[in-house]
């Protein structure tokens, strides 16, 4: 497994590939890898000749400096996991390599980012849009892999690719959960055992809401029951719990036929912010 610390090293690695037919899959990450990331890598290995993983904790997508400072960093362990699973190369740039200068451009994703994560984390998707553009330009992958847990990020990146004509296919991989239902997240490393228990309210309330919605219960009633469940869970503070059109991210108040629907939530468990979502259609 090659370790590529610079854009030049990536360029040389790409030039060393056998021929122009070789397909490259990119798995962009911020490290602190877990089974969810490894699933992205497995998918990438299934349908690309060469798999490159990037590890870069991108400062421009953190609206909260404390969250950035506390973001788990486990580089040695990450590299071991990637080596064992058979990744071809890992791009591990430092901040200077990615941001020789602070970007002047700003990306505004319009209505796609006025809700959910975008409204609670101002500037977050600007940072995601800029760093993903840079990674796509540096690695020039044929396919890039993202987890469904970050549903709004997926919508934003698909739109980025369309609007800027990036020649890449975006592949979305389902969320990996613990047996308890807790969605895997690098931030889970910061939860105490009790907080891990309390964090189960996210998935339980998503599953409850989906079942009730499909039974015909009104979204208004479901939402107030869910808000109650969150209030009764110690150390947990709900930020949002919304029914959305999974592609346009429009917030809805009832079931709609013929479109892909998801329920999305974000909550603090102690000082750790977690997100999760569930598809209503399957
Ligand atoms: O999903 C993530 O880990 C990050 O948002 C990404 C896509 C690697 C960009 O920094």
TrEMBL record:
Top-level taxon in the UniProt lineage: Bacteria
Annotated HAMAP family: PanC
Designated gene of the protein: panC
Binding site for (R)-pantoate: 61, 153
SUPFAM superfamilies: Nucleotidylyl transferase (SSF52374)
Gene Ontology MF annotations: ATP binding; pantoate-beta-alanine ligase activity
Active-site feature positions: 37
UniProt family annotation: Belongs to the pantothenate synthetase family.
GO biological process: pantothenate biosynthetic process
Reaction(s) this enzyme catalyzes, per UniProt: (R)-pantoate + beta-alanine + ATP = (R)-pantothenate + AMP + diphosphate + H(+)
Class of the enzyme per the UniProt entry, highest EC level: ligase
Organism field: Cecembia rubra
UniProt subunit comment: Homodimer.
Function: Catalyzes the condensation of pantoate with beta-alanine in an ATP-dependent reaction via a pantoyl-adenylate intermediate.
Pathway named in the protein's UniProt entry: Cofactor biosynthesis; (R)-pantothenate biosynthesis; (R)-pantothenate from (R)-pantoate and beta-alanine: step 1/1
Localization (cell): Cytoplasm
Other comments on record: The reaction proceeds by a bi uni uni bi ping pong mechanism.
Keywords of the record: ATP-binding, Cytoplasm, Ligase, Nucleotide-binding, Pantothenate biosynthesis
InterPro entries xref list: Cyt_trans-like (IPR004821), Pantoate_ligase (IPR003721), Pantoate_ligase_C (IPR042176), Rossmann-like_a/b/a_fold (IPR014729)
EC number: 6.3.2.1
The protein, known as: Pantothenate synthetase
GO cellular component terms given for this protein: cytosol
